[in-house]
């Protein structure tokens, strides 16, 4: 991972040309740092928002493509053993994304922790790409605006903000894991 000071220096020196690839890789903290650079007058805030939204959608499309094509690269037995993707599970996943794909994508984007798994699952379920992109945009825009606002107003504390992002993301991940485990145990007949 690139250090936060290095990220700030790169965005300050090169603006949008370096912001786009960094935003695909690093996400929210890059948005915070870039918006802070906008507050200091090194880049326009609207440029930051447009670039980070587009970069986020590009990264999401990459994870979607990996989910859509990646399992096919594994032999059937290995696909089932490594990622648990048997025909029944893929059918269930496809049905879920057909009925509730939009809601699932927006929640995945807003929780941040489960985002990558949700994007991979949408690809594996072969959710149509344009609705996938639209619902991702609906989740990405408020998230990007929030982090741009945080960066613009509180960006000088980006190191502390990065620490809080880690804590909150980890907390969401633990909550999601507990919820999934609880559902799994209930389906197996174990009552909590």
UniProtKB/TrEMBL annotation:
It is a multi-pass membrane protein. The keyword Transmembrane helix applies. Its main location: membrane. Keywords: Cell membrane, Membrane, Transmembrane, Transmembrane helix. It is found in: Cell membrane. It comes from the Bacteria. GO terms for cellular component: plasma membrane. Residues 37-152 form the VTT domain. InterPro entries: DedA_domain, VTT_dom. The chain crosses the membrane at residues 18-38, 45-66, 132-152, 164-185. The keyword Transmembrane helix applies. PANTHER family: ALKALINE PHOSPHATASE LIKE PROTEIN, UNDECAPRENYL PHOSPHATE TRANSPORTER A. This is Membrane protein DedA, SNARE-associated domain. It comes from Phaeovulum vinaykumarii.
